[in-house]
């Protein structure tokens, strides 16, 4: 079982509105686990929660904006990963015709 924190504790610690947290869950930006009717956020998702909270409260970005920014940042990371993979391949090749993409 992964390390986790209850949603009630998250709301208290991060001082966020439960409606905002429920919107993040409904939009599938966060994926809580439920056990004995208690919802938990896994620790691995806390950096995402912190980022979304900062965007919303500090930068006043609404939920649709958060969804778009999150999607674009994920796409950028995917492109970086693909770029690194292709750079490794091109660095190992002496002839581009040998490439197996």
What does this structure look like?
This protein has 101 residues and is mostly helical. The protein has one domain (4-93). 59% of the residues lie in helices and 11% in strands. The chain has four helices and three strands; from the N terminus they run βααββαα. It has helices at 7-14, 18-26, 46-58, 63-92, and strands at residues 4-6, 33-35, 38-42. A three-stranded antiparallel sheet has the order 1-3-2. The longest helix is centred in the last third of the chain and has 30 residues, at 63-92. The chain starts with a strand and ends in a 9-residue tail after the last helix. The mean pLDDT is 91.
Structural class by SSE content: mainly alpha
Order of helices and strands: EHHEEHH
Could you list the spans in which at least 5 consecutive residues all have pLDDT below 50?
none
Helix-residue proportion? 55-70%
Mean model confidence by pLDDT:
91
Largest sheet: 3 strands, antiparallel
Shape: elongated
Q: What is the count of β-strands? A: 3
How many discrete structural domains? 1
Organism: Epilithonimonas ginsengisoli
Protein name: Chaperone modulator CbpM
Pfam families: MerR_2
